[in-house]
Design a protein that fits this description.
391 residues, mainly alpha, Serine Threonine Protein Phosphatase 5, Tetratricopeptide repeat, two-stranded antiparallel ribbon, 20 helices, 2 strands, rod-shaped, membrane, cell membrane, HemY_N
Length: 391
């Protein structure tokens, strides 16, 4: 635009000067060192205009050449990018199909020309890992780590491969390095869960449970199973110290929701029965049953040490006085009577429990109790009844 305006100005000045001084060409003398050049004003004007036109023509030709060169170069670049994308897409499909050799070949071949090389190198690493080639796997991860903003994706891929390949401790180390920067990443949390379970690191698993439940959107069943697994594993570790105080302390540190879980409560009671001669088991069960009674605790009450069985029996009797339809209390009380060889009382409570609900275990015990009283025919009838309930 500026050039066009400049040309119009020059033409306008030329027209003005030409009309003003027509027939008077004038004289121009140019002296350079020992050389002189003589010409008319008209000739000078024509030369200047010609030079301008030559410059503009050269500029136009040069621009055309550069534009053509750029377009040619750009065409080749775009072609390479398109080909790289096509091969990467094909490689991803091969990876999904399980053709890992072809997948690695396709995604790595033109990775440098892809507009996102990180994706290519990560896919190539996955393919190499599935082929069992750890050297290539780590090489592709090293190339991926050179890309911008690649750390999280690369390290998560590395950790997943290490865990899948059984390198649990290496995987855990990799994941722990990422925790400060991505504490709530669902993939990281899930991999940490797998590491903690494999290494029986129950307390760290318990610590990440709230975030694992929140960010991995677990179902209620999955949440319950994971919660129980973590707490039962932690209780197993604590029980190895053979210290009832540590078990009770761990129980008291649990959330109220967890304390009401019958499986966890029963596990604590079961461990208390096996440490410190079982002295703390019955007081613990009585305290818990006041807030959250459960069939598991009723069954364990009959297994307290012999010195505490009288207290357990009295507790069960009081429970039945309040609710005579408590089948588990009847079954537990029957077991106490079995230990004391009071067969008639045991028979009464087993029959009462079975009248409320069906239990193959109680039918089997009733058959034994009847045999102890020489009621062979009745014992056989009950035994057949128990067998008929088997799947």
């Amino acid at each position: 635009m500026i050039r066009a305006i400049l040309l119009f100005i020059i033409l306008g000045v030329g027209l003005f000067v030409g009309s003003e001084y027509s027939g008077q060409q004038g004289y121009v003398l140019i002296s350079i060192a020992s050389k002189t050049i003589e010409m008319s004003v008209t000739t000078l004007v024509i030369i200047v205009v010609g030079l301008f036109l030559a410059v503009f023509a050269c500029e136009f030709i040069l621009k055309k050449i550069l534009t053509t060169t750029f377009r040619t170069f750009n065409w080749f670049t775009i072609r390479k990018i398109r080909r790289s994308r096509r091969l990467t897409n094909e490689g991803i499909i091969k990876l999904i199909e399980g053709d890992f050799k072809q997948a690695e070949k396709k995604v790595s071949r033109w990775a440098k020309h892809h507009d996102n090389p990180l994706l290519c190198y990560l896919m190539a690493s996955e393919a190499a890992d599935n082929l069992g080639n750890t050297k290539k796997r780590d090489h592709y991860l090293a190339l991926a780590s050179e890309q911008d903003h690649a750390r999280l994706a690369v390290e998560l891929t590395r950790a997943k491969q290490q865990v899948n390949d059984g390198e649990i401790r290496l995987g855990l180390k990799t994941l722990q390095s990422l925790q400060p920067d991505a504490p709530n990443n669902p993939i990281l949390l899930n991999l940490l869960k797998r590491c903690y379970i494999a290494l029986h690191m129950w307390q760290p698993l318990i610590e990440i449970l709230p975030r694992l439940i929140r960010f991995n959107h677990l179902t209620e069943t999955e949440e319950t199973e994971l919660l129980q697994m973590a707490h039962l594993g932690a209780l197993d570790n604590i029980a190895k110290r053979n210290n009832s105080h540590d078990l009770i302390e761990h129980w008291e540190a649990l959330k109220r929701h967890d304390q009401k879980n019958p499986v966890i409560a029963a596990a604590v009671a079961q461990h208390l029965l096996s440490v410190s001669e079982g002295k703390e088991a019955l007081p613990f069960m009585i305290r818990v049953m006041k807030k959250a009674p459960s069939a598991e605790l009723y069954r364990l009450m009959a297994d307290v040490p012999e010195a505490q069985r009288r207290d357990a029996k009295n507790m069960l009797i009081r429970i039945l006085e309040k609710n005579d339809n408590n089948a588990e209390a009847h079954s537990a009380l029957a077991k106490v009577y079995e230990y004391q060889q009071h067969w008639a009382e045991a028979q009464h409570h087993l029959e009462k429990a079975l009248s409320i609900r069906t239990s193959i275990s109680d039918y089997s015990r009733l058959s034994d109790v009847l045999s102890q009283q020489n009621k062979k025919q009745a014992a056989q009838d009950v035994s057949r009844k128990a067998l008929s309930l088997l799947p």
